[in-house]
Amino acid sequence: MYVAVKGGETAIAHSLDLLADKRRGDRGVAEVSLDQIDQQLGLAVDRVMTEGSCYDRALAALAIKQARGDLVEAIFLLRAYRTTLPRFGASEPLDTSRMVAERRISSTFKDVPGGQVLGPTYDYTHRLLDFSLAAAGERPEASTAPCDVTAALPRVGDILEREGMLEPAPAADAAEAQDLTRQPVVFPTTRPVRLQNLARGDEGFLLALGYSTQRGYGNNHPFVGEIRFGAVPVSFVPEELGFAIEIAEIDVTECDMVNQFAGSHDVPPQFTRGYGLAFGHAERKAMAMALVDRALRAEELSEVATSPAQDEEFVLAHSDNVEASGFVQHLKLPHYVDFQSELVVVRALRAEVEARNRQATLCQAAE
Amino acid sequence: MPDIPVQDAAYNYAYLDEQTKRMIRRAILKAVAVPGYQVPFGGREMPLPYGWGTGGIQVTAAIIGRDDTLKVIDQGADDTTNAVSIRRFFARVADVATTTRTEEASVIQTRHRVPETPLKEGQILVFQVPIPEPLRMLEPRETETRTLHALSEYGVMQVSLYESIARHGRIAKTYNYPVMVNERYIMSPSPIPKFDNPKLDRSPALQLYGAGREKRIYAVPPYTPVKSLDFDDHPFEIETWSECCALCGSRESFLDEMIVDDTGKRLFLCSDTDWCQERQGVLPEEPPK
Fold first, then answer.
1. CB contact under 8 A, A345 and B258
2. Cβ contacts (< 8 Å) between B269 and chain A: which residues?
3. Does one domain contain both B91 and B199?
4. Does A163 touch chain B (CB under 8 A)?
5. Residues from chain B contacting residue A352 (CB–CB below 8 Å)
6. Is B244 one of the annotated active-site residues of the chain?
7. Domains in chain B, number
8. Cys-Cys link to A74, which of A10, A67, A340, B103 (CB 3.0-4.6 A)?
9. What is the pLDDT of residues B29-43, one digit of tens each?
10. Residue of A86, A184, A345 lying closest to B43 (CB–CB)
11. One-letter-per-residue 3-state SS of chain A
């Protein structure tokens, strides 16, 4: 019977073997390639890059393959790799007005300078299973409108801002950004750190929290000022050069949420902003992030913070799915020593109660 | 069994890069200087899941060297799956000698137990800590608990122990039993059974506590007083068993209960496998790497 707690070593080795076998699946079916994952499961790659905090499509695709499509597990794999990479420094802030936008919409105006560009979106698909996809077959290329990649695309928010109707975006901070994967979060924190946390945060968690604000738990009357998706250049200033050079181009989704604000004793009524940014094409994530960002500004805007989405410690401490998944699942680890301690004390407590009851019965009988 | 992998060339010695190790060592030094105080550190993402010992692993990775001998236990046993997994991790990334013998180990990483064999000077006991904040279940907010520690405002903990006495007639807390370190900070001893608390007091070994998900390190330097909280009329006491170990006959060790058949027949065994084997005079197997 001692075998029950022995043999961990061999059991683990066999389990790893089985896992690799399951991953491959039926050998009669062609093995999926990283290129296929990148190209045909691109939104999964986007999510893994966003929450994995690492913009690398090939690594994200590898993580998805290794995790058999479990995206939270893939995010974990990518994070564990990312953490070993050396840091060269921080890039210059992205300028999303320089985005070559594939999609750009505003719900606050009928039309905006630069136009409403639908781009590739599920928004207007009918969610009917398309059985033609079940069969292999090539599709013709879709036609695209000519696009002036050199023209800057002004942000809708900037137009409102000029009128004073919308609060200005926070001034650029010369201080180096705190990297929360290198320095622990200390509460109360600052908006840049919060945004960093939300950008890495679990999409489902942020979606539910953002949704809760719409249902009255910290409502702040949001409008989509603008959502844009496309490629932006990344610039970096190498120490030895002293000026910025463009080192990459990455796809991002940005959401500028415009929220009602009645004003406070210091500030006249104006619209306020919530901000969301994600790697790749991830509108649900960017919008949820923007809602939660705005909700978390309750204190700064002298609002009464009574709802979960407005509670910084609650939101930031529980948003990370790698942390949450690990801690929830650690309950699978043996806990028999602590449980033994509990058994000992619960038995003792039960014995006391039984003795007391017996005594009471005896006393009653005696009366 | 697949071959034991040699140190992986794709990663730095002991997985973490040297800057990270230096950062962790600084946190450890601060923790040693202020016993029981929780030092925030830039906890890294590890290739093992949060809640499975990432804090302990980072501490071990920061202090381990090729001359060390590592022992890893979970629930007191060297051969439980998570202990095996962590030992394999260090065998792979740190190329370190491992042992199951408590007295041979220079670094012992543990989850949920303190070895029965008394520790010696020069040994380091690394605890894996899930929730470093002893007041967390009484006050969920970090901003609040930090202030409570700063002011030594520990009434809330005493009240919770008192409430336990009022409800159950005794302090019904059985593991993760709070301790006062060096008469200054209340500390979580990690979820070890309270049976192990007395072993922390004035131990000749250095105790390091790592919480990866919560990004905190704290320490109890050798010979530091560690007192389990109690009341004059309800002094601290540890678990006792009326049975003895079925293998070695021990009556002084922590016993695990095993259900051996469908009728619920029980057997009691030492939780500390090394201690039990030593008492039985069994030579340890070649330590699983």
1. no
2. 2
3. yes
4. no
5. 169
6. no
7. 2
8. A67
9. 999 999 999 999 999
10. A184
11. CHHHHCCHHHHHHHHHHHHHHHHHCCCCCCCCCHHHHHHHCHHHHHHHHHHCCCCCHHHHHHHHHHCCCCHHHHHHHHHHHHCCCCCCCCCCCCCHHHCEEEEEECCCCCCCCCCCECCCCCCCCCCCCCHHHHCCCCCCCCCCCCCCCCCCCCCHHHHHHHCCCECCCCCCCCCCCCCCCCCCCCCCCCHHHHHHHHHHCCHHHHHHHHHHHHCCCCCCCEEEEEEEEEEEEEEECCCCCCCCEEEEEEEEEEEEEEECCCCCCCCCCCEEEEEEEEECCCHHHHHHHHHHHHHCCCCCCCCCCCCHHHCHHHHHHHCCHHHHHHHHHHHHCCCHHHHHHHHHHHHHHHHHHHHHHHHHHHHHHHC
